[in-house]
TrEMBL record:
<keyword id="KW-1133">Transmembrane helix</keyword>
<dbReference type="InterPro" id="IPR000515">
    <property type="entry name" value="MetI-like"/>
</dbReference>
<feature type="transmembrane region" description="Helical">
    <location>
        <begin position="156"/>
        <end position="177"/>
    </location>
</feature>
<keyword id="KW-0813">Transport</keyword>
<feature type="region of interest" description="Disordered">
    <location>
        <begin position="1"/>
        <end position="20"/>
    </location>
</feature>
<dbReference type="InterPro" id="IPR035906">
    <property type="entry name" value="MetI-like_sf"/>
</dbReference>
<dbReference type="Pfam" id="PF00528">
    <property type="entry name" value="BPD_transp_1"/>
</dbReference>
<feature type="transmembrane region" description="Helical">
    <location>
        <begin position="255"/>
        <end position="276"/>
    </location>
</feature>
<keyword id="KW-0472">Membrane</keyword>
<comment type="similarity">
    <text>Belongs to the binding-protein-dependent transport system permease family.</text>
</comment>
<feature type="transmembrane region" description="Helical">
    <location>
        <begin position="125"/>
        <end position="144"/>
    </location>
</feature>
<feature type="domain" description="ABC transmembrane type-1">
    <location>
        <begin position="88"/>
        <end position="276"/>
    </location>
</feature>
<keyword id="KW-0812">Transmembrane</keyword>
<feature type="transmembrane region" description="Helical">
    <location>
        <begin position="198"/>
        <end position="223"/>
    </location>
</feature>
<feature type="compositionally biased region" description="Low complexity">
    <location>
        <begin position="7"/>
        <end position="19"/>
    </location>
</feature>
<protein>
    <submittedName>
        <fullName>Carbohydrate ABC transporter permease</fullName>
    </submittedName>
</protein>
<feature type="transmembrane region" description="Helical">
    <location>
        <begin position="92"/>
        <end position="113"/>
    </location>
</feature>
Length: 290
């Protein structure tokens, strides 16, 4: 009786088994559809910006609609505008120099906080991280007065130096370096390697994924930075692209011209992202691994 009763149940289980992969595929396709819709919603403003930028002058811009003919006259006008090339170069200098210095200092500080033992290490770390809770607007006026008294107004060093103390970058580097095996550093010390050599031959190669990720973030932060360059820059010699576009907007230009300037300013960000995309994927794949 027992064997007879169990056979139908076993057959029913075998018959119901193929339904599980079908449900899994349905969920996967539903997830893909949801992500596709979210991607289109995210790309919507960017696509609208491109359409308006390539629209002829005088074409209706609200609501956004596909123009009868595409033209590059707006982009040509922006590239030939007075100060646009200089603003772009200033933004590149501001962003690239900040990325190099922040990655260097943050990786060194992260290595010290993660692998070194010294008095007051934890207190110093959390005090440094606590500065993230202080809004930049609260320190804007004192910082401007200090930099101006030191002669840094309308200079590149006055534009760059106050933004180099990045507690978030230090924290990210410290968390990543803590996951590196201590045996690597012990072996290097046994071989007589100096601290600088340990940093350059062990820390830097093993932290390339997080350095690339952090480099993209820092570049975007500085490229899109507006408030501090607006306050400290007083002429086209140090004015960045974000501030310069605001100056163009005050000249009552057409929306097509403004959108073309925004499209051109987004090109360096896209280039940096696509060049470092492989490292971004590696950093995500290595998350949580030792």
């Amino acid at each position: 009786m027992t064997l007879t009763a169990t056979r139908p149940a076993a057959r029913a289980g075998r018959a119901a088994a193929p339904r599980r992969p079908a449900r899994g595929r349905a969920r996967k396709w539903a997830l893909y559809a949801l992500l596709s819709v979210m991607s289109l919603l995210t790309l919507g403003p960017f696509i609208a910006m491109i359409i308006v930028a390539l629209s002829p002058r005088g074409a209706p811009t609200v609501p956004v609609q596909w123009p009868d003919a595409l033209t590059f006259d707006n982009i040509t006008q922006i590239l030939g505008a007075s100060g646009f090339i200089e603003w772009t170069l200033n933004s590149l200098i501001y962003s690239v120099v900040s990325v190099v210095i922040i990655l260097l200092t943050a990786s060194m500080a992260g290595y010290a906080f993660a692998k070194k033992r010294f008095p007051g290490r934890d207190a110093m770390l959390w005090t440094f991280i606590a500065t993230m809770m202080v809004p930049f607007q609260a320190t804007l006026i004192p910082l401007y007065v200090l930099v101006s008294d030191l002669g840094g107004a309308d200079t590149f060093w006055g534009l760059i130096v106050p933004t180099l103390a990045n507690s978030q970058a230090v924290f990210l580097m410290r968390q990543f370096i803590m996951g590196l095996p201590d045996e690597l550093f012990d072996a290097a010390k046994v071989d007589g390697a100096s601290e600088l050599r340990v940093y350059w031959t062990i820390v830097v190669p093993l932290t390339k994924p997080i350095l690339a990720t952090l480099g993209v973030f820092v570049f975007l932060w500085h490229w899109n930075d507006f408030l501090w360059p607006l306050v400290i820059s007083q002429s086209d010699a140090t004015r960045t692209l974000t501030v310069g576009l605001t100056v163009l907007k005050t000249e009552e230009l057409q929306w097509a011209t403004l959108m073309s300037s925004a499209a051109v300013s987004a090109v360096p960000c896209l280039v940096v992202f696509f060049l470092l995309q492989r490292y971004l994927v590696n950093s995500i794949a290595m998350t949580g691994l030792k």
